[in-house]
Amino acid sequence: MTETVTITRDGEIAIVTIDNPPVNAMSFRVREPLRKVLETLAGDSSVAAIVLTCAGRTFVAGADIAEFGRPAQRPDLRDVIAMLEAIRKPTVAAIHGTALGGGLELALGCHFRIADKGAKLGLPEVKLGLLPGAGGTVRLPRLVGPAKALKMIVSGAPVPADVALASALVDATSESNLFANAVAFARDKAASGVASVPVRDRGAQIVGADLAAFDAEAAELAKKARGLEAPLACAQSVRNAITLPFDEALAAERELFTKLVSGDQSRAQRHLFFAEREATKVPRVGKEVSPLEIRRAGIIGAGTMGGGIAMAFVNGGIPVTLLEMNREALDRGLAMIEKNYAISVSRGSLSEDAKAGRMALFAPTTDYADLAECDLIVEAVFEDMAVKREVFSKLDAIAKPTAILATNTSYLDVNEIAASTSRPQDVLGLHFFSPANVMKLLEIVRGSRTAPDVLATVLGVAKRIGKVPVVVGVCHGFVGNRMLSARSDDAENLLLEGASPGEVDKVFTGFGWPMGPFQMYDMAGLDIGWRNRKARGQTAVIADRLCEQGRFGQKTGKGFYRYENGSRTPVPDPEVAQLIEDSARERGIERRTILAGEIIERTLYPMVNEGAKILEEGIAARASDIDIIWTNGYGFPVGKGGPMFWADLEGLPKIIERLEYRHGLSGKDVFRPSALLKRLAAEGRPLSTFVGNG
Ligand code: 3HC
Ligand code: NAI
């Protein structure tokens, strides 16, 4: 095993290098040798200054997240940073790649920071349900001021090196030769003879800070926290940095960190961190499989999804050939894309030049022959098997032999679509979510014959275009939409038996969802489900009646709610309440008060149960994949870790008992507890760590 911390010398400058692949996390095996090295160098009179740097692709990317929840081992990160900060000779962090979390906190323990121009610096702990726990909340405001520190810490978003320089987070940036520049910088500081001031002793930025403005900003942020504790703790801790002496603020930060790290929300968010990375490791697609090169993508259909998918590729720097049935549809699609970019420009998140650059990456066409040069083609035409089969047989004739052919179908059988080509090994589903240029989730649907290199390629493409990929198998609705159907299965009965759409939705938002099911139907458009039901010979008592009255949701100003003057705010509608009451009376149902617990039990428990069935069938390889799908595609609250993680918090025996009760009452299949759920409960094992054979 190589040493994790080494010292080299450049004359009187000592260069300390941390080498703990892949991301130089501050594990115990780094902290202990680093402590020793710092102790040695502090007392070595031949050393005039110290440069702290990292081997490999990045500076320290944080504390070792895998160590959280295990017994603490000293020295902890705070001990090491305190030692570093106490060193009297100049210390310089030379930052490349990413200095994140504990990594940036370590750099804040140095007198100076010099960053490669491509580096990024941030405190993303909030995304793990934490706050920076090694002095970040107390030191950062001393460098950049409380307002900027608050924004960085509560958002968790890293800043690029030039922004870090402008806000005095770093002292210099380096175009090239970071390490040589850092050594020269350290040498200058040592030679100057001026005592370097540690960050803890720099108070200018926080003395006389405008607390009222700070509190107003913090209150705004709190409104967006939606039940998450960490953003509030982050704000409190930065406030402490202003109001308390350094050591007291540090102690208060520790107390808040300790509380968060042992709480369910942070456990849930850490589960999601590792789950997201695990999801990219796909059964039967090993590291030996080489991905194909994707230089140009083709998108068929420039409607709601095709337009968004095309933008996602272009945003990732991949040129797109965009095909529509005719010129009008193409122009309409392109106009929508241009409008979306114009909105980004007006919000200041995109420059006019960048917009022009992106628009230039689109090659619009109505001629299938133009797709011949594409390496990956995604079909996003109407959800109709006959239309899809026709498109794929045309593609089969014109696409280059190495091209990957993908469908964005929401429900249809990917194997049947693949069978309309002579190359089913090159066909798969790429199920994007609406709006496709924004939503992170990408369900990659592996057909029965999809080749491993095709999967390896699209996993790489997903990363390039900023998506969170999860590979799933073929079934009606795949993982996400299939579980969504289970969640909705009993929802109308809740209305008939006594709840209002508003009451059901309020339970959902109280749980942490961005919206409830009835708001979601209204937003998506009730006509879609209505058309689907009619095609499949199914009915829905309330939704069908609403559709018969032309109430399609937001787009018609009326659905389960009313929307006044084009507003998107749902307003309860007495006409809907009457319709529900009438429907109940016709069915002889006596309406009653329905409590929150029952609403959860009749919507979310069936969803968990369906997830377990999906695992049994091998449609998803791991329970954690399901959690990634639900938190990234459907708004399941991250603080609850996804439906599988939440099921463990809720308790499998309780869920099974209630499902059995509901199954007894209704006979509905969604309530019949899955064998897997029962087996895990009997063995006392968790659901969220289940790995099957998908
Ligand atoms: N601890 C432990 N493992 C980590 C880690 C960390 N901080 N950061 C990354 N890893 C692991 C990943 O799990 C992955 O492992 P695997 O290969 O076995 O799946 C491997 O390192 C590579 O990670 P990525 O696939 O994410 O690599 P990328 O190159 O895509 O991204 C990164 C690199 C931007 C550094 C990204 O890994 C990242 O964002 N890491 C987390 C950063 C973070 O949250 N830091 C704060 C930690 S909490 C903290 O510091 C608390 C402190 O305040 C006390
Ligand atoms: P849409 O109706 O907005 O767009 C479909 C587009 O395809 C239209 O512009 C149409 O002109 C074009 N088209 C139809 N046949 C074509 C052909 N033969 N050649 C070229 N273009 C053709 O539909 P939407 O919503 O974009 O859906 C597309 C697909 O994406 C469907 O399979 C749908 O199930 C799926 N999907 C939809 C989601 C949504 O939220 N709307 C989410 C995820 C998937």
List its traits:
694 residues; alpha/beta; 2-enoyl-CoA Hydratase, Chain A, domain 1; Rossmann fold; N-(1-d-carboxylethyl)-l-norvaline Dehydrogenase, domain 2; 29 helices; 17 strands; binds 1,4-dihydronicotinamide adenine dinucleotide; NAD; Enoyl-CoA_hydra/iso; isomerase activity
Strand content: 5-15%
Which molecules other than protein and nucleic acid are bound? 3-hydroxybutanoyl-coenzyme A, 1,4-dihydronicotinamide adenine dinucleotide
Radius of gyration: 28 Å
The appropriate CATH architecture of the largest domain is Alpha-Beta Complex
Mean pLDDT score: 97
SSE diagram, text form:
Elements: E1 5-10, E2 13-18, H1 28-42, E3 49-54, H2 77-86, E4 91-95, E5 98-100, H3 102-108, E6 112-116, E7 120-122, H4 136-144, H5 146-155, E8 159-160, H6 161-166, E9 172-174, H7 178-192, H8 211-223, H9 230-243, H10 246-261, H11 264-278, E10 297-300, H12 304-315, E11 320-323, H13 327-347, H14 352-359, E12 362-365, E13 376-379, H15 385-398, E14 404-407, H16 414-418, E15 427-432, E16 441-445, H17 452-464, E17 468-472, H18 480-488, H19 491-497, H20 501-511, H21 517-524, H22 526-535, H23 541-548, H24 574-586, H25 596-616, H26 623-633, H27 643-650, H28 652-666, H29 675-683
Helix pairs in contact: 1-2, 2-3, 4-5, 4-9, 5-8, 5-9, 8-9, 9-10, 11-26, 12-13, 18-25, 23-24, 25-28
The chain binds 3-hydroxybutanoyl-coenzyme A and 1,4-dihydronicotinamide adenine dinucleotide.
Subcellular location: Peroxisome
Keywords: Fatty acid metabolism, Isomerase, Lipid degradation, Lipid metabolism, Lyase, Multifunctional enzyme, NAD, Oxidoreductase, Peroxisome
Protein name: 3-hydroxyacyl-CoA dehydrogenase
